[in-house]
Write a structure and sequence with these properties.
The chain is of the alpha+beta class. It has a domain of 112 residues: PH-domain like. 24% of the residues lie in helices and 25% in strands. It contains four helices and eight strands. Helix 2 runs antiparallel to helix 3. The longest helix has 14 residues. Keywords: Membrane, Transmembrane, Transmembrane helix.
C-alpha cells in the first residue's frame, strides 16, 4: 500500500520511501497553487528642469540664417528663330553655306538666361558647357542689330577686358538695357550707328 502525503499550508510531511523526483513534483505542484502578488514597476527617474538665463546685456538671438535671395528670370531662351530661317533660305547658295551650318547648332543648342543675379550662357548637346558671370563685372554693353532689327548681337565687355558675344538674341535692346541697369557702374547703351547688318 502506498504511503500518503499530508500537505498543509504550514508543514509538509513526506514519507521516507519517496524518491527525490516525486518530491520535486509535489513541491512544484504545491508552489503553483500559492498565489504570488505582482506589483507594477515604478519609474523612479528624476526629472531635472534646467533654467538658463542670458545676461541682461546680451539678448537671446535665434540662430536663423539669412534668407537666400530669390532668383527672378528676366529672359530665358535661345537664338531668334528668324536667324535660323533666314540662314536656311540663303544656305542653298554655296557662298552662304558655312553661315547656315553655324546657325543650326546655335538655334538648337544655345540658350541665354538673364536673371536678377547673373547672366548665363548654356551650350552643348546636353547643356554641359555653361558660363555664368555677375552683373558686377560688366563694364560696357553694345548691341549690333541684325536683319531689319528683329534680332541682334549683344556684346558685353567685362572689367578684365573680356568680350562676351551673344549672337542672334531676341529682344536684344531690352536685354542690353537690363544688363546696364543691373551693373554697378551703369553706362549708356551703345548701338552700332551703321544700322542693321546681315544675319
Amino acid at each position: 500500500m502506498a504511503s500518503t502525503t499530508l500537505l498543509s499550508p504550514s508543514t509538509t510531511t513526506v514519507a521516507p520511501n519517496r524518491t527525490s523526483s516525486s518530491l520535486t513534483h509535489q513541491l512544484f505542484h504545491l508552489s503553483s497553487k500559492v498565489p504570488f502578488h505582482t506589483f507594477p514597476a515604478k519609474n523612479h527617474r528624476l526629472i531635472t528642469k534646467l533654467n538658463v538665463s542670458s545676461p541682461a546685456n546680451k539678448p537671446v538671438t535665434s540662430p536663423t540664417s539669412k534668407k537666400p535671395i530669390e532668383e527672378i528670370i528676366f529672359f530665358d531662351g535661345g537664338a531668334h528663330y528668324g536667324d535660323l530661317a533666314a540662314n536656311l533660305l540663303l544656305g542653298f547658295t554655296l557662298l552662304w553655306l558655312p553661315l547656315t551650318l553655324a546657325a543650326i547648332p546655335r538655334a538648337f543648342y544655345l540658350r541665354y538666361r538673364f536673371t536678377n543675379l547673373r547672366v548665363t550662357v548654356i551650350s552643348g548637346l546636353t547643356g554641359q558647357d555653361r558660363s555664368d558671370f555677375s552683373y558686377k563685372v560688366i563694364k560696357d554693353v553694345q548691341v549690333v542689330p541684325r536683319f531689319i532689327g528683329e534680332w541682334g548681337d549683344v556684346v558685353i565687355t567685362l572689367n578684365d577686358g573680356t568680350k562676351v558675344d551673344l549672337r542672334s538674341v531676341p529682344k536684344f535692346r531690352e536685354i542690353a538695357e537690363y544688363c546696364l541697369s543691373m551693373a554697378e557702374n551703369p553706362a549708356v547703351l551703345k548701338e552700332d550707328s551703321t544700322g542693321p547688318r546681315g544675319f
